[in-house]
Design brief:
The complex is a heterodimer of chains A (286) and B (694).
Chain A (H helix, E strand, L loop, with lengths): L2 H14 L3 E2 L14 H4 L8 E10 L15 E10 L5 H11 L9 E5 L2 E3 L4 E10 L2 E12 L2 E2 L5 E6 H9 L15 H19 L2 H20 L3 H20 L5 H27 L6
Parallel strand pairs in A: 1-2
Antiparallel strand pairs in A: 2-3, 3-9, 4-6, 5-6, 6-7, 7-8, 7-9
Helix pairs in contact in A: 6-7, 6-8, 7-8
Chain B lengths: L1 E8 L4 H21 L6 E7 L2 E7 L7 E9 H4 L8 H9 L8 E5 L2 E10 L4 H14 L20 E8 L2 E2 L3 E2 L2 E2 L3 E3 L8 E3 L3 H10 L6 H16 L5 E2 L3 H9 L4 E7 L9 H12 L2 E5 L2 E11 L7 H27 L1 H4 L7 E3 L3 E2 H18 L3 H13 L7 H5 L6 H9 L4 H9 L14 H20 L13 H15 L5 H12 L7 H22 L4 H9 L5 H14 L5 H15 L15 H23 L2 H9 L1 H11 L7 H18 L11 H8 L1
Antiparallel strand pairs in B: 1-3, 1-7, 2-3, 4-6, 5-6, 7-8, 9-10, 11-12, 13-15, 14-16, 15-16, 17-18
Helix pairs in contact in B: 1-4, 1-7, 6-7, 8-9, 11-12, 11-16, 11-18, 12-15, 12-16, 14-15, 15-16, 16-17, 16-18, 16-19, 17-19, 18-19, 19-20, 20-21, 21-24, 22-25, 22-26, 23-24, 23-25, 23-26
Classes of the chains: A alpha+beta (286), B alpha+beta (694).
């Protein structure tokens, strides 16, 4: 099965579970959790089911294309279901069976792994799902987002697509994966990894990034004042990615790190508060 | 009657399982007893998805006789024997007929009353009411909600099985209804299983892939491990904590043995075993103390017919080891010295600057310590170690495996060819990380560890960060205990105030708090830590107070003092002497200093006392200097009979001020000998204890 078939299978499976399939979000994020399709859906009382592929950028994970496992951009398949159904674990297991994995022949474990994202004030309780020792998914019951207790409780399932595909293809090198029958991961991504690793670690303008961070941060604040929480949240995502790039450039001290994360979190908390207040108002008042 | 409760959940964190079943057992036991259904036996079982309690309880509450007293017999019946309104009213209020009333003989005379027997309720009626309360009261280090419920637990509860005397016991809890059904292994046999006894439950689970007894799972794991290892004459690298964790993390124990390429054995053992344990939760395999290129993992399954599990784990491990080797090689390529300037970007503490600043201080402090510990030959290597000891914080290896801090630095220093003394010191300089941990084996490691810990303590106290009961963000208690442990272990004769002073000097103007304030806070803090250490070692609290009360200028001496007090506490001279020392203290307390003039001594008793005092004064000084507190103590015991006669025969508070001052001067001289030995006023003696009680 190629990576694109893996994506198609998961989309098919989760659409069958009633999820709407969201397009990938077009602002850089470090994880599928950060996009509005998760962040805003987990807030407020409305029930949601959503699934989507999200390219996830982690500049410090770049290895110039030299490492068979680590890349500065990978892909996640993200599922959010709110409220969490009682049989969600078996629904998840069935998704693996749908990929042709005979679970009776493998060791599948739910290993304690609580999750936390300080910059968006979010945390949850759950597991990393291990298949024969390989982490293939994160499985999390959200408890807080934007510093607010969420209710009802959403469940988040995140498949690491490259990891899972390496398992399915039995490959040791990410670049050997088949994206489609004719195109390999190497064809598509190797040059990108090399170029972006060089950019992330050596070329990104520290001065420009610092200015961008300050600018986005200021703009987010102004947008919140005007009640434009969705664009304000985009600004926070930009802050977060800018921060990650500065980190890759080795330009952030420990104290600065704490301060910048706190800045982003403060904005995101205000956004979450305002958004939740609107969501809980009766329909006509929105 | 057999009672069985199974709370079935999604996978619990292994660290929650044991305390949860124990808690469940305790609380059920208490509730049963309170409901007059005392359990004659209570047992627990558990797996990654089940908390189980098995109990033997009575089928129902015992029947109880109840007696209600009514009106006095005399007031209950009229002269003609007919019941009075009082008797009729009483009987009616109890729903009884007046004929049912009986005569009760009480202390106050004869009364009419009603004896009834209250039927005990069957257990099946009572238990459904108490179980929801018990389950709700379980608490966990971290709790969660799920779905649309407000209830919090460790992980979602998915099924409740409850049996009493072979029948399902029904109660409702958070949207679930209990019954006689459970489920088999999640992947291997998830079918529902109806059971009617613990024996049937255990058996049904067994045939459906679940071993419900944690000890049995552990035994199976160990047996399977030895099946793998015996034929190849190898041994498990024992790791009981990992075994506990893995046995709690599964339902169906299976052991997989895999291999990794021999080339990875070239990695230092510390790094290899950390990558195996922390990265993969697998055991290392050794033969004659040497690691083999094998590992043992625990799987939650009954077999690996196609070898997928082994191969999968091998593949992941290979990537992990490749990472570790990549870090090792990359880190070595840069080298510690070249990497060191990077510490300028790593903040140690906001107001105290970077790790580079800390490094510069450590160099000064460790040089001072080497001089004071009479280890000048070590100074050069110790300073080099100080210069490099924090660099591993910015290596890839320590970023990936933080628990390797220090060790990684030491290994790199060795591999880069730095002197072994320096490499060793770096390797050991976080030790001891707890009171149970070993202090550094090398003197260089000990000195660097002291320097590092004191630097942190003095700095954090110096900028006014408070350490309180629950808040100790810089681990000052652990650090201070480490300092004490090293000093006591190596019997280092260091002046504590001067050491603190030296560290403060190294900070320069970064510390704004007045010196005297910092020193007194830290002294108090260390006294508290020493008290904690000595109490843990089982010394008497009042002797500890006495030993510490004499000051902690020299930390090692506090232990010598304490040991002397402890050794002599049973001596017949001890208590009379303590009482005498207290008397001396009381008399001279608040008196202005004065000196004794032998020419002014008039009475025999004071002359005798003075002569012994002079001898003891001359002889005890060198003993104290050597730290021989036992001999010094024994010697001052000799003052006791002389002091006794002195107090009996001599008027200290003489009318003549010259004589009075002279006698007080003599007692002050004695106090001056006693003071460095202990604060005797803190010692509690038998006679006083009796007084305290009154």
């Amino acid at each position: 099965m190629s990576l694109q078939n893996l994506i198609l299978s998961l989309q098919h499976y989760w659409a069958g579970q009633g999820c709407y399939l969201a397009p990938s979000y077009d602002v850089e994020v470090g994880a599928g959790t950060m996009t509005p399709d998760t962040f805003f859906r987990v807030l407020g009382p409305r029930a949601w089911k959503v699934a989507y592929v999200q390219p996830s950028r982690r500049p410090t994970d770049g290895r110039f294309g030299d490492n068979p496992n680590r890349v500065q951009k990978h892909h996640q398949f993200q599922v959010i279901i709110k409220p969490s159904p009682a049989d969600i674990q078996s629904i998840y297991l069935d998704s693996l069976k749908a990929l042709g994995i005979d679970l009776a022949e493998h060791d599948l474990r739910f290993d304690e792994d609580d999750w936390e994202s300080p910059s968006i004030g979010a945390w949850g309780v759950g597991w990393q799902v291990m298949l024969d020792g390989l982490e293939i998914s994160q499985f999390t019951y959200f408890q807080q987002a934007g510093g607010i207790d969420v209710f009802p409780i959403p469940v988040e399932i995140t498949y690491g697509l490259e990891r899972l595909e390496m398992f399915l293809e039995g490959k040791d090198d990410i670049y050997d994966l088949q994206w489609s029958d004719d195109v390999t991961y190497r064809d598509l991504r190797l040059d990108e990894e090399r170029q972006f690793s060089e950019y992330n670690f050596n070329q990104a303008s520290v001065k420009g990034l610092r200015e961008a961070f300050t600018g986005h941060e200021r703009e987010a604040g102004q947008l919140i004042e005007k009640g434009l929480v969705l664009p304000a949240y985009d600004m926070c995502l930009k802050c977060s990615h800018t921060f990650n790039l500065l980190d890759a450039r080795g330009a952030i001290s420990v104290t600065e790190r704490v301060k910048m994360i706190a800045q982003i979190r403060a904005l995101v908390s205000r956004i979450a508060k305002d958004f939740t207040a609107r969501e809980t108002k009766p329909e006509g008042a929105r | 009657m057999e009672f069985l409760l199974e709370i079935m959940t999604e996978e619990l964190p292994p660290s929650h399982v044991r305390s949860a079943v124990e808690d469940l057992q305790d609380k059920l036991g208490r509730e049963f007893a309170a409901a007059q259904l005392p359990a004659s036996s209570l047992k627990t079982f558990s797996s990654s998805r089940r908390l189980v309690v098995l109990a033997e309880i009575p089928a129902g509450q015992p029947d109880r006789d109840m007696v209600v007293t009514g009106p006095p017999k005399a007031a209950a019946f009229a002269a003609d024997g007919s019941p009075t309104p009082a008797a009729l009213g009483f009987a009616r209020s109890k729903g009884a007929r007046v004929e049912d009333l009986q005569v009760l003989t009480t202390e106050r005379g004869e009364y009419m009353g009603l004896k009834t027997s209250v039927k005990g309720k069957p257990a099946a009626e009572i238990i459904p009411g108490l179980l929801p309360r018990v389950i709700s009261s379980l608490s966990f280090p971290r709790m969660m909600r799920w779905g649309t419920g407000l209830f919090k637990f460790s992980r979602p509860i998915r099924n409740l099985l409850c049996l009493l005397g072979g029948r399902a016991l029904v109660f409702s809890f958070e949207g679930l209804t209990s019954g006689g059904m459970t489920f088999g292994h999640k992947l291997r046999a998830p079918a529902p299983l109806l059971v009617d006894s613990f024996a049937a439950y255990r058996e049904a689970l067994k045939t459906h892939g679940v071993t419900i007894d944690a000890e049995e799972r552990k035994a199976v794991i160990l047996a399977r491990i030895s099946e793998h290892l015996t034929p190849i004459e190898a041994e498990l690298y024992a790791d009981p904590a990992l075994l506990d964790k893995l046995a709690s993390d599964i339902e169906c124990p299976f052991v997989v043995m895999g291999a990794f390429a021999e080339e990875y054995l070239r990695l230092p053992l510390e790094i290899l075993s950390t990558a195996l344990r922390e990265g993969m939760n697998v055991f290392s395999v050794v033969r004659g103390g040497k690691q083999l290129p094998l590992f043992l993992g625990v799987a939650d399954t009954s077999g690996d017919p196609k070898g997928y599990i082994r191969k999968g784990n091998e593949r992941v491990l290979k990537a992990r080891l490749a990472d570790a080797r990549f870090f090792w090689e990359q880190d070595l390529k840069t080298g510690l010295k070249k990497r060191a300037p990077g510490l300028k970007n790593v903040v140690f503490q906001d107001k105290l600057g970077t790790y580079d600043d800390k490094t510069q201080r450590l160099k000064k402090i460790v040089a001072y310590l080497a001089e004071k510990a009479e280890a000048k030959s070590l100074a050069k290597d110790a300073v080099l170690a100080a210069e490099l000891c924090k660099v591993d914080l910015i290596t890839d290896m320590v970023r990936e495996f933080p628990s390797l801090q220090g060790k990684a630095g030491g290994l790199y220093a060795r591999a880069e060819g730095f002197p072994e003394t320096a490499a060793r010191a770096i390797y050991e300089h976080y030790q001891p990380v707890s009171l149970e941990d070993e202090p550094p084996e090398s003197l260089g490691g000990a000195l660097l560890s002291l320097a590092d810990k004191l630097d942190t303590i003095v700095g954090v106290v110096g900028v006014g960060i408070q350490t309180t009961g629950s808040s100790d963000p810089f681990g000052l208690r652990r650090n201070a205990q480490g300092v004490c442990k090293i000093i006591l272990d190596r019997r280092l004769a260091l002046s504590f105030p001067r050491l603190v002073d030296k560290v403060m000097a190294a900070y320069g103007d970064k510390i704004k708090r007045p010196k005297a304030e910092v020193l007194s806070y830290i002294t108090e803090f260390f006294a508290g830590r020493l008290r904690y250490i000595y109490e843990k070692q089982g010394y008497r609290y009042d002797l500890i107070n006495a030993a510490l009360g004499a000051g902690i200028e020299n930390i090692h001496q506090t232990l010598l003092r304490l040991k002397a007090l402890d050794a002599l506490k049973a001596s017949p001279q001890f208590e009379p002497f303590i009482l005498m020392a207290k008397r001396v203290n009381n008399i001279v307390g608040g008196q202005s200093p004065s000196k004794v003039d032998p020419g002014l001594l008039t009475e025999k008793a004071e002359k005798d006392l003075y002569s012994t005092f002079s001898i003891i004064k001359t002889n005890s000084a060198p003993m104290l200097a050597k730290g021989d507190f036992v001999q010094a103590q024994k010697m001052v015991f000799r003052l006791q009979p002389l002091l006794d006669s002195f107090f009996e025969q001599v008027m200290v508070m003489a009318k003549e001020s010259k004589l009075r001052k002279n006698r007080i001067g003599l007692l002050l001289g004695i106090k001056k000998i006693l003071d460095p030995m202990a604060d005797y006023s803190q010692v509690v003696v038998e006679g006083e204890k009796a007084k305290e009680k009154k």
